[in-house]
């Protein structure tokens, strides 16, 4: 209803206050602008960095809110800028993403997350559809590469399992850990690609 849409827009304004849309958001913010060492997440990523997972959650939230308030130009700009951020500084060939950007917006080499890659594929396709470009060639090509890369390096056909993370050179990941959430993200992404 309109009350929920209004609350969602108010939350989006609060989250994005004082942040240019093109930069994304850091993983942690301080309530008061006090200079302290930023906390680190469970993987050791400083909270002042822009974590890929945080940007994915923002993209999902802003895309959903834009669907119910399509007249909101500021939300449209934020969705557009997050798509550009994910396909810009976060992007890495041959079809994966960096885990974080440092405070200057430079990619931080880290492990490859197959789950986040296929999740990104689905969310990018949904964002393009919501923006009125369901077959955006840049987004579709990126989604295909993300899914193909994850299928090639993250899927263990012998065991029917998906790897969650991998460390090592981006073109040849190693040290895979198997996770139960990745297949659900993969099904979502593959389904979205099928609909394009």
Task: Describe this protein's structure.
This protein is of the alpha+beta class and 196 residues long. The protein contains 6 helices and 9 strands. Strands 6, 7, 8 and 9 form a 4-stranded antiparallel beta sheet that branches. Strands 1-4-5 form a 3-stranded antiparallel beta sheet. A hairpin with a 4-residue loop joins strand 7 (155-156) and strand 8 (161-167). Helix 5 runs antiparallel to helix 6. The radius of gyration is 17 Å and the shape is globular.
Topology, please?
Blueprint: H1 2-16, E1 50-51, H2 52-68, H3 73-87, E2 91-92, E3 96-97, E4 100-101, E5 107-108, E6 112-113, H4 114-130, H5 137-154, E7 155-156, E8 161-167, E9 174-178, H6 182-195
Antiparallel strand pairs: 1-4, 2-3, 4-5, 6-8, 7-8, 8-9
Give the total of beta strands. Answer: 9
Order of helices and strands: HEHHEEEEEHHEEEH
Residue-averaged pLDDT: 79
Distance between the termini: 29 Å
Indicate the multimeric state. Answer: single chain
Radius of gyration: 17 Å
Largest sheet: 4 strands, antiparallel
Low-confidence stretches: none
Percentage of residues in helical conformation: 40-55%
Helix tally?
6
Summing up helix and strand content along with how strands pair, one would put the structural category as alpha+beta
> What global shape is seen?
globular
């Amino acid at each position: 209803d309109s009350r929920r849409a209004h609350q969602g827009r108010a939350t989006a304004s609060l989250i994005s206050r004082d942040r240019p849309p093109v930069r994304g958001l850091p993983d942690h913010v301080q309530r008061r602008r006090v200079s302290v060492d930023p906390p680190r997440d469970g993987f050791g990523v400083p909270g002042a960095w822009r974590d890929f997972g945080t940007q994915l959650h923002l993209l999902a939230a802003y895309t959903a809110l834009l669907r119910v308030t399509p007249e909101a130009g500021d939300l449209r700009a934020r969705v557009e800028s997050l798509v550009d951020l994910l396909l810009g500084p976060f992007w890495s060939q041959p079809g994966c993403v960096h885990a974080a950007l440092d405070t200057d917006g430079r990619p931080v080499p880290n492990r490859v997350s197959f789950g986040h890659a296929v999740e990104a594929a689905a969310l990018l396709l949904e964002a393009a559809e919501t923006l009125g470009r369901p077959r955006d060639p840049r987004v579709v090509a990126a989604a295909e590469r993300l899914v193909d890369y994850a299928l090639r390096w993250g899927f263990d056909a012998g065991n029917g399992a998906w790897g969650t993370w991998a460390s090592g050179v981006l073109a040849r990941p190693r040290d895979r850990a198997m996770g139960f959430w990745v297949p659900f993200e993969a099904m979502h992404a593959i389904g979205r690609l099928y609909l394009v």
